[in-house]
Every structure is written in structure tokens, then in C-alpha cells.
């Protein structure tokens, strides 16, 4: 069960005590549920489950009062893991379907539809050799209802055809020289970004222009 | 087209996970069921042969091994990969409580996979291999392989784990505490004999 802490952001964007000017706040308890089946055999483990959450939020910058936005997430997930002496392999997937009742946004003219859907899919696998050299590959995809007011066109970050659809791949190579140090190279490649592969923002920017290379160092102590 | 906006970037993230749960957590049961359980099972009844069963293990043996992991004197590859990190924040008091927790758990019942191999293993366990100067295991590990103080319980342990330990003793990759004795004993054993005695121990 989640609940917003008793403070919010007032209209000036400064944090302050919860009062009628606070916004972006959970307006009631937000129940979270999870049900999973787990099975282990030899060096393998498998988990398949369902989970979900329901939350009511006041629109950012608006008083904590109706009309609010209500989000209901229902999801499936799964994980498989193999832990050997030389080889370690794991795979994860999740699919989240979110039903959005945007009464708050709709009343303010910030969404075209009173209800929208947003679906998220993730699938990924990783492999480590001798717990030292690793590789990982992941697929991500988001699809949802088009909404001209919620997803407006604007340069770079905008939505040329008012669709939130994005998808692509994440690839990663890692090296763990010591158990508390991890060095990795990660590349994120977008095939679709904010609704389209090419000219997604209506200003000539293509999804692949957002491809990013990360060099990461991770240290735990 | 603005390609400069999201240029390739280099980042250095430093995450600090200290002090770990172990330093602050005095409740051994909580530590065992929330941390150690991921590999060893909530009551030390691990399912994967990569990780030893700890339920019913001798407290003194567990204490010695946890300290050997922490001091890095037990340095076989799996110890380095898992237990060095897991034990680094444990103090002596927590080690003692954890050892007592596992030794108080009910041991996992034995399982026979290959009855013929079990019989061969039983002979080695009870009489040793006189020609190869391999002492009988029963002398230290007990009639029912239940162990005694620093000599570990072997009954019901994963056979694959036991074979691996014998190989590590033989090659001197596992050191610390009783390792010198086990090095001498395992040196006289063939891989097949190690498999037989381990199959017998898992069946107990």
C-alpha cells in the first residue's frame, strides 16, 4: 500500500506543507498487489506472476481535490535464472497495461480523451561468463492511445502524430574485474520514438537521432 | 536536424550501499531469511547444488567457515564470487547467531539417485581406501555423517557440492581450518570414488 507523504509542491514549484495549493499528490491510498508462482529445480529458478496498482493523482500544480486522474495498472511478469559455476544466465519479461481515467486533465483541457490506454512491454536477457564478462540484450516497447492534447507536437521532445508509441533495443557489454566494480558499455537504439521512426516531432527529427551510447562505471562500497 | 542534443555521453555513477544490512541487523533469523535465503533457502534447505545446504549443520563448523570467508582464507572461486562479499560486514556476534540459527534447523532428508553408487560410497565412508592411504570418513564425520563441532555434517548435502569440495581440497584451492587434513585424504581419491562417497552422503 502506498500513500503520498503529507507535503506537496505549491504553485510556485516550491515544496511546502500539504494544503489546497499542493499538486501531483496521491489523493488516497494507492493499493499495490502481486501474485507469483515460484519454482526452483537444480540450478534453475522460474517465477511467473501478475501485479497491479491503482492510484489517484491530482494534476500537477492543481489543488488536491476532484476531479483527479486515476491510473489502474494490470501486469504480467516472468523471470528465469540459471546459476552455474561458469555460466550465469537470466531472462526477464513484463507487460503492463495501464487504463487512465484522466478526469483531472480532461477538465483542465490537458487531454483530448477522458480515458486512455498505455501498454508497456519489456523483454531482456543477460549472460555472465565466470561472473566476470557479461552481455545483455533487451527489447522495449510502449504503445498507447493517441491524444492530441496529452501528446502535443513540439521540437525534439514532441509527438508529431500525437502517439506515445516508442520501441527499440538496449545492448550491453560488461566487465567485472572485482566483485564490487562493474564497468559497462551500453547502447540504446530507438526504432520508433514518440509515435514514428522518421520525423516523429514534426520538425524533421528521426527516432535514431536519439540513439545513445553510455560508458558506465559502477562501484559499491 | 539537431544531432548534438543527445550526443554520446560518458557517465560515472558511484553508488554507495554501506553499511550493508549485516552491520545493522542483529537478528540472525531476519538476516538468514531475507539475505542468505536467496541462495541457501529460508531455513538453509538450498535447492540448487551450487549452494550448500546449511540446515542442521554444525554451528562450530559454520562459524569457522564464515570467518574464513570474511578473512578471505577460504578462497575457492565460489567463495570469492559470493561469500567474500556476503560476509565482509559480519561481526563475530552475528556470525555466532547465524551459525546457531542454521544448526538449529531440521536437516534435509537424504535422497538416493543411484543405489549401486551409494553402496560403493558407503564402503569408502566406513572403511576408507586402505591401499591409497585414504582414512575412513566416519572417524571424524560420525556414524550418520552428522559431523561434530568443527567437522561438518555431510548427510543430506548436495552430492555435486561435495564432489566439488573434494576436488578443491585435492587441488588445494580450498584452504583454511580443516583443509590440510582433507587435502591429504582427497589426494588418494579418484574422481569416481569422490562421486561414490558423495552419492552415499546425499542419500543419508
Q: Secondary-structure map with pairings?
A:
The complex is a heterodimer of chains A (221) and B (204).
Chain A: E1 7-9, E2 15-17, E3 32-41, E4 44-57, E5 69-83, E6 87-102, H1 103-107, E7 115-129, E8 133-144, E9 166-178, E10 181-192, E11 212-219
Antiparallel strand pairs in A: 1-2, 3-4, 4-5, 5-6, 6-7, 7-8, 8-9, 9-10, 10-11
Chain B: E1 9-10, E2 13-14, H1 21-24, H2 28-40, H3 59-70, H4 77-87, H5 92-103, H6 115-127, H7 138-141, H8 159-170, H9 179-187, H10 191-203
- Under CATH, the topology of the largest domain in chain B is which? Cytochrome Bc1 Complex, Chain D, domain 2
| Termini Cα gap of chain A | 31 Å
Shape of chain A: globular
Largest sheet of chain B: none
The Rg value of chain A, from CA coordinates, equals: 21 Å
Give the SSE order of chain A as H and E letters. EEEEEEHEEEEE
Number of domains of chain A: 1
H/E element order of chain B: EEHHHHHHHHHH
Largest inter-chain contact set: A-B, 31 and 27 residues
What is the spatial order of strands in the main beta sheet of chain A? 3-4-5-6-7-8-9-10-11
Bin the strand percentage of chain B. under 5%
Proportion of residues in β-strands of chain A: over 45%
Helix/strand-derived category of chain B reads mainly alpha
Number of helices of chain B: 10
Walk me through the structure:
The complex is a heterodimer of chains A (221) and B (204). Chain A has 221 residues and is mainly beta. Chain A has one domain. In chain A, 2% of the residues lie in helices and 55% in strands. The two termini of chain A are 31 Å apart. About 3% of the residues of chain A have low confidence. Chain B folds into two domains: 83 residues, Orthogonal Bundle (Cytochrome Bc1 Complex, Chain D, domain 2), CATH 1.10.760.10; 89 residues, Orthogonal Bundle (Cytochrome Bc1 Complex, Chain D, domain 2), CATH 1.10.760. Helices cover 50% and strands 2% of the residues of chain B. In chain B, helix 6 crosses helix 10, helix 8 packs across helix 9 and helix 8 runs antiparallel to helix 10. Classes of the chains: A mainly beta (221), B mainly alpha (204). At the A-B interface, strand 11 of A face strand 1, strand 2 and helix 4 of B.
Amino acid at each position: 500500500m502506498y500513500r503520498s507523504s503529507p507535503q506537496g509542491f505549491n504553485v510556485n514549484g516550491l515544496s511546502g506543507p500539504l494544503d489546497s495549493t499542493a499538486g501531483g499528490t496521491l489523493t488516497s491510498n494507492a493499493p499495490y498487489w502481486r501474485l507469483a508462482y515460484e519454482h526452483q529445480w537444480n540450478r534453475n529458478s522460474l517465477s511467473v506472476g501478475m501485479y497491479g496498482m491503482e492510484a489517484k493523482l491530482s494534476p500537477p500544480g492543481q489543488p488536491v481535490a476532484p476531479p483527479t486522474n486515476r491510473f489502474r495498472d494490470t501486469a504480467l511478469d516472468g523471470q528465469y535464472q540459471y546459476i552455474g559455476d561458469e555460466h550465469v544466465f537470466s531472462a526477464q519479461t513484463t507487460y503492463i497495461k495501464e487504463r487512465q481515467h484522466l478526469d483531472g486533465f480532461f477538465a483542465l483541457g490537458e487531454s483530448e480523451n477522458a480515458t486512455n490506454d498505455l501498454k508497456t512491454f519489456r523483454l531482456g536477457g543477460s549472460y555472465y561468463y565466470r561472473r566476470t564478462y557479461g552481455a545483455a540484450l533487451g527489447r522495449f516497447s510502449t504503445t498507447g492511445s493517441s491524444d492530441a492534447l496529452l501528446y502535443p507536437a513540439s521540437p525534439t521532445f514532441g509527438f508529431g502524430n500525437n502517439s506515445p508509441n516508442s520501441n527499440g533495443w538496449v545492448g550491453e557489454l560488461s566487465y567485472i574485474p572485482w566483485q564490487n566494480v562493474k564497468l559497462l558499455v551500453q547502447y540504446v537504439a530507438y526504432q520508433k520514438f514518440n509515435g514514428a521512426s522518421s520525423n516523429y516531432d514534426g520538425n524533421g527529427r528521426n527516432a535514431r537521432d536519439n540513439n545513445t551510447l553510455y560508458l558506465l562505471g559502477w562501484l559499491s562500497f | 536536424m539537431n544531432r548534438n542534443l543527445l550526443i554520446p555521453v560518458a557517465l560515472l555513477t558511484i553508488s554507495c550501499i554501506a553499511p550493508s544490512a549485516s552491520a545493522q541487523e542483529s537478528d540472525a533469523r531476519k538476516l538468514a531469511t531475507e539475505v542468505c535465503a536467496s541462495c541457501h533457502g529460508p531455513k538453509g534447505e538450498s535447492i540448487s547444488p551450487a549452494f550448500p545446504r546449511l540446515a542442521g549443520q554444525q554451528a562450530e563448523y559454520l562459524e569457522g567457515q564464515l570467518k574464513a570467508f570474511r578473512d578471505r582464507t577460504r578462497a575457492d572461486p565460489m567463495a570469492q564470487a559470493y561469500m567474500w562479499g556476503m560476509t565482509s560486514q559480519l561481526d563475530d556476534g552475528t556470525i555466532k547467531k547465524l551459525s546457531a540459527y542454521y544448526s538449529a534447523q531440521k536437516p534435509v532428508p537424504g535422497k538416493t539417485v543411484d543405489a549401486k553408487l551409494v553402496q560403493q560410497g558407503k564402503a569408502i565412508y566406513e572403511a576408507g581406501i586402505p591401499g591409497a592411504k585414504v582414512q575412513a570418513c566416519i572417524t571424524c564425520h560420525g556414524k550418520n555423517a552428522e559431523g561434530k563441532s568443527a567437522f561438518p555434517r555431510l548427510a543430506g548435502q548436495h552430492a555435486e557440492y561435495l564432489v566439488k569440495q573434494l576436488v578443491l581440497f585435492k587441488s588445494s584451492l580450498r584452504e583454511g581450518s580443516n583443509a590440510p587434513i582433507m587435502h591429504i585424504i582427497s589426494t588418494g581419491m579418484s574422481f569416481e570414488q569422490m562421486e561414490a562417497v558423495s552419492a552415499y552422503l546425499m542419500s543419508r
